[in-house]
Amino acid sequence: MELNGTSAVISGGASGLGEATARVLAAAGATVVIADLNENRGKQVADEIGGLFARTDVTDEASVQAAVDLAVATGEPLRTGISCAGIGWASRTVGRDGTPHDLASFQRVIAVNLIGTFNVMRIAAAAMAKTEPADADGQRGVIVNTSSVAGIEGQTGQIAYSASKGGIIGMTVPAARDLSVIGVRVNTICPGIIDTPIYGFSENADDFKARLVAPVVFPKRMGRPDEFGHLVRSLIENDYMNAEVVRFDGGIRFQPKLRPATSGCDLTCGNAVSARPTARPAAPRPRRSSRGGNQLRYRRARLRREAAGEDGRGQRAGQAARPPRRADRDAARRYRHDRPAGAARGVPGVGRPGLC
Predict the structure, then answer these.
(1) 199 is annotated as an active-site residue
(2) Would the N or C end of the chain have less CB density within 10 A of its end CB?
(3) Burial call 147-185: b when 16+ CB within 10 Å, e when fewer
(4) Nearest by Cα to 238 from 169, 139, 172, 145
(5) Secondary-structure class of domain 7-268 per CATH
(6) What are the tens digits of pLDDT across the range 94-133?
(7) C-alpha to C-alpha distance for 9 and 26, rounded to whole angstroms
């Protein structure tokens, strides 16, 4: 799919991944419509890249329709619809105090991340269906949706966010099949930890980023928004990429708990909301005893012996006491000194039979 001389709609295009993607597509010759709630920043980005801005609430049908109509009104065929708008939320299904997850918050995350993505995809694809085919294959456009690694392996406290992002992954194949009849491809990207300005607001930002980067395989750093934009362009321009879910994460695999409780994607999408919990202080290490183990382990072993009726050497009451360990060691020394001269160690029948 050729980008030059076409138009594109990008939800969440005023910041983060959406802004980086808008700059990449504009550099390739596309006229980009920034669809976002942040009017000041959205207009600034649109002016810088020679695009247009439409104040857009992705959960509102009329609002999204207006953004798509603005792209069609440029006179250039609408070939690309990209969803980067999203919010994050951190809450357990049942909190530590026993209260259930807030239902309104869950519904809000689903509405913005999942329903908002579907809203942009369906309205943009309908506009693409009215254009002439761009090539001999009958291709008319490309949809690129933004999910998250959390949609595959969500962490503790990500029940709402993971559900919304997992839904985007689940839409990929059926949407590609639905839209194949009008020549529109559908792909989804799952970002991991992406470096955006939101991570630089706190005083200990560097330490915070270092903890986030720790599980990344290689390269040992956070991803860059421009790298995400480059991947979007590759998916658009490669005509054989369809119905794919692509991880963009440096090989990271999320553990059940990773501070913060939300992944990097929700913090980098447009209209993002941070829900970063405070870090817990490290628990003190148990004091080690002089015998090389912790005292609690020895105390438990002693209690088990007493319960079994054993003395300190493991002998049950009434059993003949075995010689102490020191005597065992002395006997072993005498054996080594008293065995026949020239006895070959490990040769059966010589010295200690069968010793190897």
Answers:
(1) no
(2) C
(3) bbbbbbbbbebbbbbbbbbbbbbebbeebbeebeebbbb
(4) 139
(5) alpha beta
(6) 999 999 999 999 999 999 999 999 999 999 999 999 999 9
(7) 11
Output the six-digit token pair for 207: 């330490």
What are the distances in angstroms from CA 226 to CA 87, 147, 312? 20, 17, 68
Residue 122, judged by CB atoms within 10 A of its CB (0-12, 13-18, 19+), counts as middle
Q: Which two tokens stand for residue 157?
A: 């406290």
At 284, the amino acid letter reads P
Give the model's pLDDT for residue 268: 36
pTM for the full predicted model: 0.73
More confident residue, 291 or 75: 75
* Sheet with strand 141-146: strands edge to edge: 52-55, 31-36, 7-11, 78-83, 141-146, 184-191, 244-248
| Options 161, 199, 240, 335, the catalytic residue | 161
Question: Which token pair is 200?
Answer: 């630089």
Residue 120 corresponds to which amino acid? V
- Residue among 155, 158, 149 at smallest CA distance from 101: 158
The verdict on whether omega for the bond into residue 256 sits within 30 degrees of 0, i.e. cis, is no
User: To 5 degrees, how large is the angle CA 28–CA 65–CA 242?
Assistant: 50
**Residue 136: partners with Cβ closer than 8 Å, 6 or more residues away:** none
Q: Which two tokens stand for residue 306?
A: 């007493």
Q: Token pair for residue 124?
A: 């943009």
